[in-house]
Amino acid sequence: MLCLGIESTAHTLGVGIAVKENGRGRILANEKSVFTTEHGGMRPRDVAEHHASVAREVLDRALEKAGVSVKEIDIIAFSAGPGMGPCLKIGEIVAKYLALKHDKVIVPVNHCQAHVEIGLLVTKAKDPVTLYVSGGNTQIIAKLNNRYRVFGETLDIAIGNALDKFARSAGLGFPGGPKIEELARKGRFVPLPYVVKGMDFSFSGLVTELERKLEQGYRLEDLCYSFQEHAFAMMVEAVERALAHTEKREVLLTGGVAANKRLQEMLRVMCDDRDVKFLVVPKEYAGDNGAMIAWTGIVMAPTYGTKDITAVKSMQRWRIEEVEL
Ligand code: AMP
Ligand code: MG
């Protein structure tokens, strides 16, 4: 079973190819082109234009890398949401064109589920509590009664967005996460707002306070360090409670922010304390990518696969809880 997957929910246009043989999954290609801008902000229309202009080239690269032709592919999968409307539309159109032209099964894939499924494939985790931390999403996800459920999430902006926002205010450029991580190594602790409400958390008040303290002349290194300590502790606290509630024995960390060594360290300490296994998705598969859509296309084909392209569409607000497993 060969599946070609297209990712286009946000900044990344990705095309991946996955195969399942003898019950085992493997990634054959994972090509991408990422929209970037000097000024930080992402206007959905500009991003969609980027995706449309590179789609053909990224598709060709993926097929060449995998050494297969479109004819050999069994399933075409696309990231159907959640994401930015105009960007989603590009992936949907390319997928529908390919499915129609080559008479293939098409599978709409939930982007958040795809982050979890590729995490399971590459780390061999079985049934984890997943912390998905990226530029657009921050969620704690686990499977319960054969459905993925969100056990905690941000009430406003995503953690990656919060890091990028503060970095922009501080003139650090984009993406801000790695620069904040670097500066944090030389920082000391400054108390900041710590906002956990039930199992959810919030970052925008924290960013506002950081910006205020920056204007007041606090050392940038201290603010970067304290930002990480507060924001990461908020998420680790909620993950720990999700573990206690679900009684799961694994934590899976994924998304672009998963690359942060301090976040990894804090989660590892918490997991070690509870005798829980801690797994980090490698960078290539942690950020948005086409391989995760291809692999999830194979996983979900029995449920969502169809040859009727009018039966599927992208959905800007498709939540992972709504996915029928
Ligand atoms: P994604 O949306 O999953 O592609 O992830 C992009 C986000 O990850 C951006 O907000 C980056 O600032 C953030 N990011 C990347 N590397 C790091 C890092 N080392 N520490 C913190 N955030 C990071
Ligand atoms: Mg993502």
So, CATH architecture of the largest domain? Answer: 2-Layer Sandwich
- The count of domains is 2
- Write out the strand line-up for the largest beta sheet, numbering strands in chain order: 3-2-1-4-5
How many beta-strand runs? 12
What name is given to the CATH topology of the largest domain? Nucleotidyltransferase, domain 5
Helix content: 40-55%
| Beta-strand content | 15-25%
Mean pLDDT: 97
Stretches where pLDDT is under 50 for at least 5 consecutive residues are: none
Can you tell me the CATH class of the largest domain?
Answer: Alpha Beta
User: Nearest-angstrom radius of gyration?
Assistant: 20 Å
Query: Number of helical segments?
Result: 10
Q: Output the structural class.
A: alpha/beta
* Ligand species: adenosine monophosphate, magnesium ion
Q: Please describe the biggest sheet, giving its number of strands, its sense, and whether it closes into a barrel.
A: 5 strands, mixed
Write a compact overview of the structure shown:
This protein is α/β, with parallel strands linked by helices and 325 residues long.
